[in-house]
Amino acid sequence: MAKTTVIIGLILVAIGLVAYFGSEPKPLIQEDNIQQGDSTVSTKLPVTALIPAFFGLPLVACGLLAFKDAWIAHAMHAAACIGLLGSLGGLSNAARGILKDEPNYRAVSYSFLMGLICTVFVGLCVQSFIQARKRRRQQGNHDASAVGNAEGTTP
Fold first, then answer.
1. What angle do CA 20, 80, 136 make, to 5 degrees?
2. Which of 3, 41, 86, 95 could make an S-S bridge to 55, C-beta 3.0–4.6 Å?
């Protein structure tokens, strides 16, 4: 699951970078220039386009931490929490954006994509947690039966 976390984190970073560098700069009109009669307009790329990358980078960090056995449980639970926040944030932002009078379909699509990817990731995390719990139970039963057999009794 650590590899999956890193890959999904990198996908989110890539989506954020594509959204940021592929977006049109917002015009910024400076109040000082308007009062002086100068109509100079500067432009600025929207930082909000990087939101998928802001979720992707911590996922990559959690995935890299999960490669160490001592950190795997904490890292994967943290990654699942980040994924859940990304899912809720992305899908709610997409729903809110589509309901606007003049929706920005590009921004809505990136928000929806982030929410969808994070939702799938959280589902994979839950499935992985369930499988890990089953493995621990089976190992516990196997260890108990081995101890019972060594003592001459059966569990």
1. 150
2. 86
Contact 52, 87 (CB under 8 A): no
Residues with Cβ within 8 Å of residue 79, at least 6 apart in sequence: 5, 58, 59, 62, 63, 66, 121, 125
Q: How far apart are CA 145 and CA 16, in angstroms?
A: 51
Residue showing tokens 């911590």:
58
How much helix, strand and coil, in percent to the nearest 5, is found in the chain? 75, 5, 20
Structure tokens at 89: 């944030």
- Give first-to-last CA distance, the chain, whole Å: 33
pLDDT, tens digit (0-9, with 9 covering 90-100), for 143-155: 555 545 444 444 4
Question: pLDDT tens digit string along 110-148?
Answer: 999 999 999 999 999 999 999 988 988 888 776 555 545
Domain boundaries, the chain: 2-144
The answer to whether residues 9 and 80 touch, using CB atoms and an 8 Å cutoff, is: no
Residue linked to tokens 């709610």: 92
